[in-house]
Amino acid sequence: MCRVAPVIRSFFRPETPVRLRLLTILIVTVAGVLLVVTSLLMARVRDQVRIIGDVAAPQAATAADLYFALSDMDAQVVRMVLTGSADAFAASRIDALGVYRERSDQIDADLQRSLTTATGPADRATVLRLMDHLAVYRERVWPALTGGPAAGGYYTQATNVLHLDLLPTAQRLRDAGEEQLLSAYGAKKTTTKWALILAVALGAVLLLLLIYLQVWLARRFRRMLNPALLAAGVITLALVIPAVVVLSAQETRLGDARTRSLAPYLALSTSRAMSYDAAADTSRYVISGRLTVYQQDFTRKSDVLLDSGGPALDRWRTYRRDHERIVGLADAGRTAEATGALTGIRRGDASFDFSSFDAAVADVADAHRRDFDTALRGTSRMLTGWPWLPVGALGLVILLVPLGVRRRLKEYQ
User: Do 394 and 305 touch, CB atoms closer than 8 A?
Assistant: First the structure.
């Protein structure tokens, strides 16, 4: 027992090489932990940004685009049914057929992308159901487009499939995409928070230990500065401060991009889909023999658009006045005039005024999408190299610390 006590006391005596070795090992260990934590978490943040940009955001955008394309496709079908085979409306019918084919191809492409990027069996099953409903819709549309007295009846069946099956299923896919996007942002935010906490905490501990060792050596060996330890401290600061800045900046930048660009883009995609469906209600009202349900649906959708605070609402109010005029003509039995006012391409005709509204909304939506893509690319560039920078910087610190105390330890040999 008497022999053990002096050993223990010498172990903790500040002038012994044991104390110097312990401090060196402790500093190297903290630097190693900081290296691993910073490198891994930076890599994780970078991967989560990639997931947002390459998976989650495109999934949400594709689902929103699909919902819009379905609404527009049906709007073009009702235009073709409304104009029939009359020569006076040949130009409108050809335009509607071209847009119908474009939207049909767009829907097929969106469904294939959604099927490829589906993250689970539930999303995959939703896409497959959409494909089945789409096949049924097209079966109903084909006889409606061939003309004849039963065209309106076939179109009614087709639009029922759209509103009862296709759009609700597309809505579920869109909701799932937005939930996955929210989850991806939440996961990245959590990783960023822990990366900041650990980088600041471990960086501060490492700096304090380096300062303590520097002061201890200065007092013990009458040397004011140890160049190797000083360099290690400078390198630590040069790593931790930029890491904190980058982590904070990427979180703010991508969060702002989601709030100010991506969310408005998705909302405008929904508004565009609703506007196309509302505009189609005008045509449905005319060809259905003035069923009040279509007038009620238009009013409900129009009110939602006006309450949304979206862009170009003055242009939508212009279209709404066109709608009321067309309904008045249809109610008076002047179906041909109503069809002309609905499909005409002159200013004051419904088709012209709706296109003016839609173009304005599309411009704003595209600007939001470009802003988000720009912010995403900037964030990715900001994180470039960061998974490896801690390896180089802290690896150098781990080498410098033993180098800085090597001479002092030799004095005890």
Answer: no
Question: Any idea of the CA torsion for 237, 243, 245, 250, to the nearest 10 degrees?
Answer: 180
Q: What is the pTM of this model?
A: 0.86
Question: Which amino acid is it at 151?
Answer: A
- Give, in degrees to the nearest 5, the angle at Cα 276 between 56 and 282: 160
Contact 27, 209 (CB under 8 A): yes
C-beta of residue 236 within 8 angstroms of C-beta of residue 203: yes
Which pLDDT value is given to residue 332?
A: 93
The amino acid sitting at 29 is: T
Query: Max Cα separation, the chain?
Result: 117
142: which residues sit within 8 A by CB, 6+ positions away? none
* Angle at which helices 57-83 and 335-343 cross, to 10°: 140
Helices of type H across 288-388 = 292-307, 313-331, 335-343, 350-383
Q: In angstroms, rounded to a whole number, what is the distance separating the alpha carbons of residues 330 and 165?
A: 29
What pLDDT, in 10s, does the model give residues 87-125? 778 888 888 899 999 999 999 999 999 998 888 899 999
Write down the pLDDT at residue 117.
85
| Burial zone of 123 (CB within 10 Å; 0-12 exposed, 13-18 middle, 19+ buried) | buried
d(CA 50, CA 275): 33
- Written as one string, the DSSP assignment of 192-257 is HHHHHHHHHHHHHHHHHHHHHHHHHHHHHH--S--HHHHHHHHHHHHHHHHHHHHHHHHHHHHHHH
Which one-letter DSSP state was computed for residue 13? -
Q: Token digits for 216? A: 């201890």
Which tokens is 333 given? 């039995």
Helix (H, G, I), strand (E, B) or coil at 287: helix
**pLDDT greater at residue 12 or residue 43:** 43
Residue count of the chain: 413
Q: Which amino acid is at 222?
A: R
Q: Where are the alpha helices (DSSP H) in 87-223?
A: 90-117, 121-145, 151-161, 167-221
Nearest to 162 by CA among 60, 62, 297: 297
Contact 305, 274 (CB under 8 A): yes
Q: Are 406 and 69 in contact (CB under 8 A)?
A: no
Helical (H) or strand (E) element with 411: none
Cβ atoms within 10 A of the Cβ of 113, count?
18
Q: What is the distance between the alpha carbons of residues 345 and 39, in angstroms, rounded to a whole number? A: 60
Around Cβ 293, how many Cβ atoms within 10 Å? 11
